[in-house]
UniProtKB/TrEMBL annotation:
<protein>
    <submittedName>
        <fullName>Beta-phosphoglucomutase</fullName>
    </submittedName>
</protein>
<dbReference type="InterPro" id="IPR051806">
    <property type="entry name" value="HAD-like_SPP"/>
</dbReference>
<dbReference type="InterPro" id="IPR023198">
    <property type="entry name" value="PGP-like_dom2"/>
</dbReference>
<dbReference type="InterPro" id="IPR006439">
    <property type="entry name" value="HAD-SF_hydro_IA"/>
</dbReference>
<dbReference type="InterPro" id="IPR010972">
    <property type="entry name" value="Beta-PGM"/>
</dbReference>
<comment type="similarity">
    <text>Belongs to the HAD-like hydrolase superfamily. CbbY/CbbZ/Gph/YieH family.</text>
</comment>
<dbReference type="InterPro" id="IPR010976">
    <property type="entry name" value="B-phosphoglucomutase_hydrolase"/>
</dbReference>
<dbReference type="Pfam" id="PF00702">
    <property type="entry name" value="Hydrolase"/>
</dbReference>
<dbReference type="InterPro" id="IPR023214">
    <property type="entry name" value="HAD_sf"/>
</dbReference>
<dbReference type="InterPro" id="IPR036412">
    <property type="entry name" value="HAD-like_sf"/>
</dbReference>
Length: 217
């Protein structure tokens, strides 16, 4: 039995949300807009363009197209300065255990992320060789909750959507998996991710037996 396992990146494999927060906060404050951790929550799984649009609307700011592009570049440069220092120690607990088990048992493994920096981050934490396919922000035109990112992932793994399992930490991502007709596994808070088929706090709560059940389903 072969299934397709599709992983989100930020919040599932690594905790880059803290670096997005620092970079967005610095940028927002530089244009006199407040930025809180609660607002950062709302940017999870959301693209870079959409994130800046939200920050500008929270601050009631309108800017020119050129300024918009300049701010996007500034945020990303700042974000990349944190990414450059990342290493294997920032992989979230038990993620390698699950990836290794899937690879050893010839299951399809893909990444499905909104980030345009996904490949770089996977290289930094030395996990890139665990993925047969990488679908990221450079490959999609429609953002989560649209299922596009995961449907492209399923195709790359030569799997039907109904034979795919998605691991996601964001509400929009869980909805995208459900919209793709895949099994959705939320990583995080049960009350936040209530639309997911299963929810676990993190990968330390996911047993190999559970993974085996998903493979046999
Ligand atoms: P970038 P994911 C998402 O990654 C993040 O959750 C989101 O906060 C970020 O804005 C988005 O990637 C775009 O990232 O600026 O690096 O292209 O959770 O889909 O892996
Ligand atoms: Mg995420």
């Amino acid at each position: 039995n072969t299934k397709g396992f599709i992983f989100d990146l930020d919040g599932v494999i690594v905790d880059t949300a803290k670096y997005h927060f620092l970079a967005w906060k610095k940028l927002a404050n530089s244009i006199d807009v407040d930025f809180t951790e609660t607002q950062n929550e709302q940017l999870k799984g959301v693209s870079r363009v959409k994130s800046l649009e939200k920050i500008l609307s929270w601050g009631n700011k309108t800017i020119s197209e050129d300024e918009f592009m300049a701010l996007m570049a500034k945020k990303n440069d700042d974000y990349l300065s944190y990414i450059d220092k990342m290493g294997e120690s920032e992989i979230l607990p038990d993620v390698p255990k699950i990836l290794n088990h899937l690879n050893e048992n010839n299951q399809g493994v893909a990444l499905g992320s909104a980030s345009k920096n996904a490949r770089k981050i996977l290289q930094k934490v030395n996990l890139i060789s665990n993925f047969q396919a990488i679908v990221d922000g450079n490959d999609v035109s429609k953002a989560k909750p649209d299922p596009e990112v995961f449907l492209i992932g399923a195709k790359a793994l030569h799997q039907k959507p109904e034979n795919c399992i998605v691991f996601e930490d964001s509400v929009a991502g869980v909805q995208a998996a459900n919209n793709a007709n895949m099994i959705s596994i939320g990583i995080g808070d049960k009350t936040v991710l209530s639309e997911a088929d299963y929810v676990f706090k993190d990968f330390t709560e996911i047993s190999i037996e559970f993974i085996e059940e998903l493979i046999k389903k």
